[in-house]
Amino acid sequence: MKQTCLHDRHVALGALMSPFGGFDMPIQYAGIVEEHNAVRQHVGVFDVSHMGEVLVTGPEAEKFINYIFTNDLTGAPDGKIYYGMMLHPNGGVVDDLLVYKRNDHEFFMVPNAANIEKDVAWIREVAKNFDVHVNHMSHLYGELAVQGPEAEKTLLDVLGIDARDLEFYTFKDIQLDGEDVIVSRTGYTGEDGFEIYASHTLTQKLWDKLMAAGVQPCGLGCRDTLRFEAGLPLYGDELTDEITPIEAGFGMFVKLDKPDFVGREACAKQKAEGTARKLVGLELQGQGIPRHGYEVLNQDDQVVGEITTGYHSITLDKNLAFALVETPYSKLGTELKVRIRRKTFPAVVVKKRFYTPNYKK
Amino acid sequence: MIKYLPSHEYVKVDGNIAYIGISPYAAAQLGNVVYVDMPEEGDDVVAGEDFGAIESVKAASDLFAPVSGAVIEANEHLIDNPRLINEDPLANWIIKVEMSNPAELDNLLDEEAYAALCASEKH
Q1: What is the pLDDT of residues A8-41, one digit of tens each?
Q2: Does A177 map to a domain?
Q3: Does the complex come out with an ipTM higher than 0.85?
Q4: Looking at the structure, do residues A128 and A263 belong to the same domain, yes or no?
Q5: How close A147 comes to chain B (CA, Å)?
Q6: Would you call B37 an interface residue with chain A, using a CB distance cutoff of 8 Å?
Q7: C-alpha–C-alpha distance, residues A207 and A154, integer Å
Q8: Range of the domain at A81
Q9: Is A175 strand, coil or helix?
Q10: How many domains, in total, are found in chain A?
Q11: What is the C-alpha separation between A187 and A39, in angstroms, rounded?
C-alpha cells in the first residue's frame, strides 16, 4: 500500500489508519466529532497528499481540457479553478476533479487518489488527438488542506502565506523556502479554506509548523462528514462509472452549450428526456442511521432506491442521507422509508445541501 | 470471569447472568459511538448470531451474541448517552442475558487469547 510523505507523522500522532484509494491514510486522531467541529468552528488541517496531480501543457491545452472535462473553460481567466467531471462516452463519470488554469497553455488537474491510474490512462488516450503534453506529477507533490473560518489567518500567522487576496476557487503560484508552491482557496468541507501543493519535504515542514501551532490534525473520517453536510459528492458513492452527473444532480457543472466534449450526447439526452433516477437528500425520523447500500422504500414497501451516503450529522444533529431514487419519488417532501437492519424508518426528501457553506466570496 | 468473541464482544459472567458489551479495543477502533440498536427485554439471543448493532459516526457494526439466552435488560442509559461506551465499555454493558447454555462459554476466547488477537490486528 502507498504512503503519503506524512505517514510517519500520522502514526506518531496515534492516528487510526485505514486504506483509502490505495494509500494507508489517517481516519481520525482525536475523534471524528472533535475534528469535524474544529473545522466548522476554528481550523483544521488534512493530509490530502493522496490526491493526484496531472499537468497538461501545449498549444491545444485549453481545447483538450474543454473536450475531456464537463465544465467550460473557454476564455477563462488565469488563476481560476473549475470543478467538473471527466465522462465516459455513455455519460458515466470517470472521475470528478478540479482543473486549475495557469494560462492558455497550462492546466493543472487534481483527480481522486482511487482513480489516478484509470484517469491518467484516460487522459493520455484522449490526449493523442491533441497537441498537448501530459505530465503525471502525483509522486512529486504533497498536499495539505487547511480548512475552517480561521484558515486565512492560520496561513498568514503560522505558515507565512498571505492568501488574503485569493477569491474562492482561485489560486496563485508562490515561492516558499525557495520552492514553487501552489496555494488555492478551495476545499471539501463547506468552510472557507485553502489547499497547498508543495514538495514532500516542504509539506512535512508546513505540517510540523501547523502541529507546533496547535492546529487540529483531521482525518478522512471528518473529511467525509463535512463534505456530506455541505452536499458535496464523493466519487464511489454519489458518482461512479455507472452514474451520470445529470442523475446525480450536478448538471450545473456540465456545460451542454459549449463545443463537443466526451459524454455530451448522453447528458444532453438525459437532460432533454429526464432520468430514470435522481440523487436526493433524505431526513430520517427516529433513531436509525442510514448507510451506503441500504434500501429506500415507498409507502407500499417496494424498493425504489438506495442510500449512497448517510450519517448522523454532527453539525445538524439529524440522521441524514443522500439516496439515488426512482425519479417519481425524488420531489421535495416525498415521504419514503429506509430499511435499517430489521426495521424501517420514515424519511422525507429534502435538499441535498444540508448545511449552508461558509465560503468566502 | 470475562470472555470474548473474535468480533470483539465481551461477556462478563455472574452466576447464570451474562453482561454483554464491546471491548475497550473495539470501542477505541469505532470512535464516537452515536447509537446502539438493542433488543428488548424478553427477546432471545443466540450464540454467534447478531442481536443488534452499534453505530459510530463512520459506520454501523453488527453486534454478535457470545452466548445464548433471554434478554433480561437492555442498558437504557445508552439510549440517551451512547458515548458511555467510549468512556468505559466494560462498565457500560449493552445487554444483560440469562444464559440458557453456559457451556457455550467454553467456545470463547479468554483474556490472554483475546489480547493476542488484538495485538495481531494492530499488525
Answers
A1: 999 999 999 999 999 999 999 999 999 999 999 9
A2: yes
A3: no
A4: yes
A5: 20
A6: yes
A7: 12
A8: 50-135+244-275
A9: strand
A10: 3
A11: 11
